[in-house]
Amino acid sequence: MDQIIYLDNAASSWPKPPQVAKEVYNAIEKYAANPGRGAHRLALEAGRIVYGCRAALAELFHISNPSDIVFTKNATEALNLPLLCYLSEGDHVITSSVEHNSVIRPLEYMQAKGITYSTINADAAGKTDVDEIEKEIIKHPNTKLLVVSHASNVIGTILPLENACKLAKKYNIKIMVDAAQTAGIIDIPVEPWGIDFLAFPGHKSLMGPQGTGGLYISPEINLPPLFHGGTGGDSESKVMPNIRPDRYEAGTLNTPGLAGLHAGIKFILDTGMSSIREHEAGLTRMIMERLQNINKVHIYGPPINEQRAAVVAFNIQGIESNEVAYMLDKVYNVAVRAGMHCSPIGHRTIGTLEQGVVRVSPGYFNTKEEIDIFVDAVNDIVEEL
Q1: In whole angstroms, what is the distance from residue 155 CA to residue 302 CA?
Q2: Residue 197 in 3-state DSSP?
Q3: Which of 18, 63, 143, 184 gives 92 a disulfide partner, CB atoms 3.0 to 4.6 angstroms apart?
């Protein structure tokens, strides 16, 4: 098989730094014991690896106590925990019109439990006006939680997160941030900004394996656990312990995955988040500059002179988005994603609910030469129409 050009990093980053796979292998080969479930050396080593990953995340996100970070299998599980466990009958939630289904579907489910929610309409470029959020808070004095995506997974629009955090504090409501597209690529000062919940995946810009993720929970919040079971400690009790992170980590953790995630985070810290961001932003700008000069190509989201996540959504007039992605894969060996991207509400906002979009998302290990090949392929597809 010819070498594929992978431009679907918004779904899952690839390739990973070599040390990620090495550490996953080492965990399985050398200390595949159950962390926190024994005093023998292998269990202790597994526990050390898990804690090391937790501590690295705390450093990355500006969190003082690593125990306020709990591990989940992905960002979706992390988002579900507060949405299902923090809210009570009569509470109201405010979110935006560019959210992922991992937010919208739990909110829809919670309506049957007496929870209401409203969405702030973003503009066609995916921008959410913080002033409109404030109006919605005033309109709903029972608002308990503000839920926002730091960046849209469909078009890459970045929310003014610091201002949203200030607004939440002004009205004494909690804020939960979906950092699926920004964790590891854009600095998120969790405690300095007063973020109450931060949900993140391990397998995207944190460069770890799939099956890893986590949630920061403010120490000021007493959140009931979503899952109940064994934690390795306090085993004589019939109920979940109050101590963090055990209270939220029932069952065996993904130690090999967390070993790999730790390696990914170390790579980010050693390389420098700003360097990674600069490289990806340069490739993103290159994509936009070249695509906008191709006839029949329409690009969605913020204009080229504004910051965005490393995501470019586009369509070619006269051809379905899925067909474009299929041709790029089968004819040109270029991997992108097309369709709805698990965000129908976002597509309704930008007017692509019927056709979806082609999404190209470069990563740190992509090159300018690969971008040239991709854009030339798009140009060829247009010329063949």
Answers
A1: 8
A2: strand
A3: 143
Mean pLDDT in residue range 220-228: 95
Could you report the per-residue pLDDT of 2-48, keeping only the tens digit for each? 799 999 999 999 999 999 999 999 999 998 789 988 889 999 999 99
CA angle 75/76/78 to nearest 5° reads 60
Q: Which amino acid is located at 8 in the chain? A: D
| One-letter amino acid of 198 | L
Q: What is the mean pLDDT of the chain?
A: 96
Q: Give the count of alpha carbons within 13 A of 203, CB side only.
A: 14
Dump the DSSP string for 330-381: HTT-EE-EEE-TT-HHHHHHHT-TTT-EEEEB--TT--HHHHHHHHHHHHHH
Rounded distance between C-alpha atoms, residue 196 and residue 165, angstroms: 9
CA–CA distances in Å: residue 43 to residues 69, 262, 286, 343: 21, 18, 48, 41
Which of these, 116, 111, 64, lies nearest to 95 by C-alpha position?
Answer: 116
Alpha-carbon distance 225 to 356, whole Å?
A: 36
Alpha carbon distance 170, 343 (integer Å): 30
